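fwd from M.: "can u put these together and see what the complex looks like"

so here's what she sent:
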Amino acid sequence: MKTVVVVGNGMVGFKFCEKFVAQSDTSSYRLIVFGEEPRVAYDRVHLSEFFEDGDAERLRLAPRSWYEQNRIELHTHERVSDIDNDVKTVTTSKGKSVAYDYLVLATGSVPFVPPIRGVEKNGVFVYRTIEDLQDTLAYAATIKGGKAAILGGGLLGLEAAKAVMDMGLEPHVVEFAPKLMPRQLDSRGSRVLQVKLESMGIHIHLSKATNQILGNGKITGMEFGEDDILNVDMLVISAGIRPRDELGKSAGLTMGTRGGIVVNNRMETSDPHILAIGEVALYNQMIYGLVAPGYEMAQVAVDRILGKQESVMATEIDMSTKLKLIGVDVASFGTPFMPPEKGHSIIFENKTESLYKRINVSHDGKRLLGGILVGEAEDYNMLLQMYQNEMSLPEHPEVLIIGGRGEGGTSFGSAMDLPDTAVVCSCEAVTKGAICSSVLDDGNENIKLVAKATKAATGCGGCKPMVADLITESLKTIGKTLRVNLCEHFDYSRQELFDIVKLRGIQDYDELLDTVGKGHGCEVCKPAIAAIFASIYNETANRQSTIQDTNDRYLANIQRNGTYSVVPRVAGGEITPKQLIAMGRIAEKYDLYTKITGGQRIDMFGAKLHELPLIWEELIKEGFETGQAYGKSLRTVKSCVGSTWCRYGMDESVSFAVEIENRYKGIRSPHKFKGGVSGCIRECAEARGKDFGFIAVEGGWNVYVGGNGGANPKHAILLAEKVAKETAITYVDRFIMFYIKTALPLQRTAPWLEKLEGGITYLQNVIINDSLGIVDELDAEMQALVDSYKCEWTEAVETPEIRERYTHFVNSEETDDNIEFVSLRAQKMPKAWV
Amino acid sequence: MIASLNLYETVPAEDVKIWFKAAAISKFPKNGGACIKYKDKQVAIFNFTRKNAWYACQNLCPHKMEMVLSRGMIGDENLEPKVACPLHKNNFSLKTGKHLNGDLEAIATYPVKIEDGFVYVGFSE
Ligand code: SRM
Ligand SMILES: Cc1cc2nc3c(=O)[nH]c(=O)nc-3n(C[C@H](O)[C@H](O)[C@H](O)COP(=O)(O)OP(=O)(O)OC[C@H]3O[C@@H](n4cnc5c(N)ncnc54)[C@H](O)[C@@H]3O)c2cc1C
Ligand code: SF4
Ligand code: FES
């Protein structure tokens, strides 16, 4: 039986224990741990979270019972005071003496307190242990609303500044250097951060050397120079760390000139029976003030004791960091500052939005060497991976920091492109391969399970988004998706509900809710399910009117004052003079505001609820039908005049537009959809800005899909080239039907196509090559929808029960007296909102 | 128009002085609402068939002061019955009038009773 004594029960000492007992061959060892602090090891990295609830338990890395179960003899509140390395024993503050075969020093570090006159005064604190925090909190409570200074504008200092701000004090960061986070940020990045922090209420004082702490017994201020005084009621010192190496010194181990116990790449000190790990160990002449290198050292030390010769510490230690908790994203990785002889930098700065991004790229443009992100660090994980795995960069590396962001769009590939060996969670050194295998081989299908099994994302948590991505993507490879439930009433996605409705032949919302849902529905699931019924049965909004969105319920678009607009269909934008006259007459009669829409038709605004059936009755008499401007359905098919009149036209775009608009009119879908037909590549109909578009070319029609105007404009993508009109229609039939069946609620075709695995090539395979064997089904379903079209306004006007819905009061003939109009040019408009 | 908001005040069941006969049950769509007029007030009444319950509240949405709540969709959120304004989807509890997805002032609610196929709303004046 050999004895291993661990001095220090902090983060790295604990990790040593955890890794030690995880080995199968440790039964012949006795593990004894001494910790000076009163509690068992806790998560110092998340120390600041203690402010949120004062719950020290939550920070605990493992309960005492864990040590018992693993036969670890833990002695807390007991400091090791001496080492006798000749006879290999340690002595403790309680007078105990214990013999060891291996001694592991994991004594960590202490905050560095500069020798400033007056630092011993009351109200001056450091920031390292739970006790430090408790003392700080208690003092803060006595100076409510006062000012607190933080000495040191580094990573920890800023975290502390946020903490004192949360305690209700006015924070002042005092930094000796001329910039914040001098070790991680360049001057420009640091300035952007400063402006952002100041806007959050954190005061920053740079280039300040503190001469003395003022006050009689307790702190009242800090003096920097003559006449340069900052009045404060409290001070938190965060000016760096000093290794707790006193045991090393007294045992005669080799020490660094500025402290720290020197270790080699197997964590051995100058005495081969004594190892040192964590913040006390000086490796490569450096103390690494981060947990990830400490954890790696713990692993190497375990391997050393168990005789695994091949395990050594890496030569290059990654010091990449992301600032947490402060409310502004800051990260730096690799070499944040770049000497011009090694590479060049690409810098993006947007002062108005407090954004600063810099990446350093090798001269040949092939490798990422490091970078800085301030204001937005969403891409930190991916950039870090590219840097660590020396992945090749895109042709224009600037897209990595300014690239096509837009909706869900990112200039990076997916996390799945990383090599299996890529370390995704650096705190726990978990690779991409381990995470994916945990999902695929062990069936851990959500982040909780994966974290439990692999420990990924259990440290600083910075890798969480990437781990989540890997889980989603891995599941996708086996055809599973993470649940995207419609709302609290249905534990199903829209696509699943579509299938359920179809397979079980369910016709009513209530029936669906009673069979597969719960509760009584809401404004999210009702219209989404109404659209599913409409897409499957082509039923109009009239049958189940109370599950429709307001526009569908009354077959008109509600306007700001509660009146409605009326938009008859004008297929392809083609309208006769007689129809124009009729519309003009009706609009005049009901005093409606009229306007030509962006969709090549005419909108009449300001109709009161009870007027709608009267107006439509007249329009229908004149041969109009509903334009479904209110529905998630086909809107318009825009046309140019085409070869009928235009001297350049290659084909009859208007005829095609009219035909196709009449084909798809009334079809309900996840979101509205629009089309366009241009007679030549001059593209006057902007067909490529629509969900589907046709452009006449020499030898046929080019077919485009997935275009969008709106907030995220996108050009439609070529689906097929130079095809005959009939083929073009067949392809678009299938495209629309496939979209209807698989899109999310309120997802237009452009984002749907963007998210579609395999993109346009996959879509071409499904639609043109029938790779899924579903085109016959799609064709039949589309034809059924086309054949069952009816004008829902005709239905409404002719059915007395439906007509009855169009009344403001059910107990009075009066109309809504709250509606007021004012005049506008020769027409009218609603009175403005107050 | 702010003045019109002051017209509406919640009437607790015990304060009802007048049971106003609003309209026949058939005038109110299943799981939907309709608006009635009482003196100078507009009141939205909801026939929450799924819960076998009736609710009444002011028709005026306090967000933009439009008379539209009766045209909103009803449903529930964590079992609380609610109506969503058709204009901007602000949600209000049908029980308490509380604004559920923001902090607008609560809307006024009124007691409802059904007798002989008719809907009655309780007012205090
Ligand atoms: C009336 C009209 C503006 C006009 O006076 O010209 C209009 C009016 C409205 N648009 Fe539009 N859009 C109108 C053409 C367009 C166009 C141009 C076009 O179709 O060529 C676009 C960009 C093309 C596109 O859709 O990709 C357009 C992109 C939008 C969007 C953004 C969609 C997106 O994918 O981002 C919305 C918001 C939405 O639907 O969620 C929207 C929503 C609306 C709504 C429904 C907003 C609302 O809920 O009240 C407006 C209804 C007014 C009404 O009562 O009729 N409107 N809207 C146009 C009616 C065309 C028609 O005849 O039916
Ligand atoms: C507020 C705060 C935020 C931080 N945030 C981050 C972060 O975001 N990312 C990151 O990587 N790092 C962060 N760190 C640093 C990280 O906490 C340390 O790197 C890590 O705790 C080092 O572990 P350690 O075991 O070496 O030292 P410690 O965790 O300090 O453990 C050493 C333990 O040994 C005990 N000890 C010392 N001498 C003796 C003795 N003679 N006998 C018995 N016991 C003894 C000490 O009391 C202590 O409990 C943060 C630190 C703080 C304070
Ligand atoms: S698309 Fe070509 S043919 Fe059609 S109107 Fe424009 S220029 Fe003329
Ligand atoms: S008017 Fe009701 S939500 Fe805006």
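replying to her w this: Chain B has a mean pLDDT of 91.
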